[in-house]
Amino acid sequence: MGGLLRYLFGPGKREEHVRPRVVAAWEGAGPLSALQPPQLSGGRYDVRGLTAYLEQPVRAGVRPPAKPVWHCSIRTHPTDRILSDPQWGRVAAEVIAAAGLAPHGDVDAVRWVAVRHNDDHVHVVATLVRQDGRTVWPWQDKRKTQAACRDLEERYGLYRVAPPGGGVRRWPSPAELNKAARLDAAASAGRPGQRAARARRAGRRVAPREQLRRRVREVAAIATDEHDFFARLAEAGVELKLRHSTRTPGQVSGYAVGLPEHRTAAGDIVWYGGGRLGPDLTLPRLRSRWSTGTPPPGTAGGHAARLAAAASVPPEVSRRAAETVRDATAAMRAASSPAVAAAIGYAAADLLTVTAHAWEGEAGGPLTDAAEAFDRAAHELRGRVPAARVSRAGHLRSMARLIAVMGSLSRDRDTVAALHLVLTLAALAESLADLREAQHRLAQARAARHAAGQLRAWTSPPTGAGPLSPATAGVRPPGPDPLTGRRGRQR
């Protein structure tokens, strides 16, 4: 407890702790000014008195736990207003009551304090022994405190985030991001080439997990079955390892991918299974997507699929894709069930992903960023694939395959038609946002509206540059991401 309080009342790792103070405490603690540690002549705070107050029940308890300290930080979004000290105190009291440590009105509950040393967050510190000597064992405190935060966001009019577990991907860990930064720094110092210059211009470090997730999703969007999927992965420069069933040796039950340049210290490739990239990228989920996403051969989507398979690309492919998106948007708005609308949005995410890659390539840009936001908005919770067989969804995926062929063969430069396609995708993103708001999935609705804004603001690259040229790839400005509040593209 003493070490934690010394840190909270200290200068911080980067001198970011400004005027640390106690803004709330346990019931019956008395005035907060009496708990505030006195400041010494050198600017440090003497936390011995506060430490003794908090540890007193632990020392008098019956068989106290070996680790009696409970610590939680509560932070607002960068776009939120600044809360006052009394407001932060009420927030801390609600959170620790929801955790079951100090219920309202329980005078014998654990002792705790809330310490504030910045505008945007507080730290709640408690001991796990009640004042009557009994030990408290928190049960599902993370889930309960998160639920309390969702209620506080609505009560105080703060930025509302998605419930935990509702994501569609596995984010890189801090260790992965740090390793990517070290490798990119070494590559930039040793080889000041095009890739290093691109990374410096973008001001970001992309972890191998994110690179692989993007490539696998792009390939899955245009593949027709698992054999086509595996062949396209190999062509995309991705190392592939298949896992076979133990019951049926000839049957493929899973896969793993890796980058040739991403290896361990022993020289082995670091492998990522599809489920480690995103819950919807496992082989069973991809098979479900392919079995429900192909339109019947006699439909317009089937005709587009045949053109894509034959690499016969009509010159007006962007205009035809825009018409397909416009029809899909009308079908989404008139859909009789959320499953049908979700299937259309899920396929539209594939179309936008392929379109962004065709125009901006591996370097990425604003269209790629919009595709990332649209992808977050379109996918179902926990990676579930919409099971409904919807013809409009099949048409969208067929057009995605045509655009993939266009990007690799003809480099179609019909700028007006491409702009029209992007604007129709923006309209579909707005319809998807309305669907997510009706489902009370506010984070995904916010992502869809952000994607719509990005698409409406997009301008095509100069006519003289190729769609995969680094000069045509837009660079995100260094400001905070409106979806996450963080800077750059690291998550």
What's a concise summary of this model?
It comes from Phytohabitans maris. By secondary structure, the protein is α+β, with helices and mostly antiparallel strands.
How would you explain this protein's 3D organization?
Residues 197-206 have a biased composition (Basic residues). By secondary structure, this protein is an alpha+beta fold. It has two domains: 2-156, no CATH class; 174-472, no CATH class. The protein has helices at 2-8, 32-35, 48-60, 85-98, 141-156, 174-190, 194-202, 208-222, 226-235, 274-277, 283-292, 300-310, 317-333, 338-360, 366-378, 391-408, 415-438, 442-456, and strands at 21-25, 69-75, 112-116, 121-127, 239-244, 252-258, 272-273. A four-stranded antiparallel sheet has the order 1-3-4-2. It has a three-stranded antiparallel sheet with strand order 5-6-7. Strand 3 and strand 4 (121-127) form a beta hairpin. The longest helix is centred in the last third of the chain and has 24 residues, at 415-438. The two termini are 31 Å apart. The relative contact order is 0.09.
Task: Please name the defining characteristics of this protein.
single chain; 491 residues; alpha+beta; 3-stranded antiparallel beta sheet; 18 helices; 49% helix; Endonuclease_MobA/VirD2
Q: For the record, give the distance between the C-alpha atoms at the N and C termini, rounded to a whole number.
A: 31 Å
Structural class: alpha+beta
Strand order of the largest sheet: 1-3-4-2
Overall morphology: elongated
Overall pLDDT level: 81
Poorly predicted tracts of residues: 192-204, 296-301, 463-491
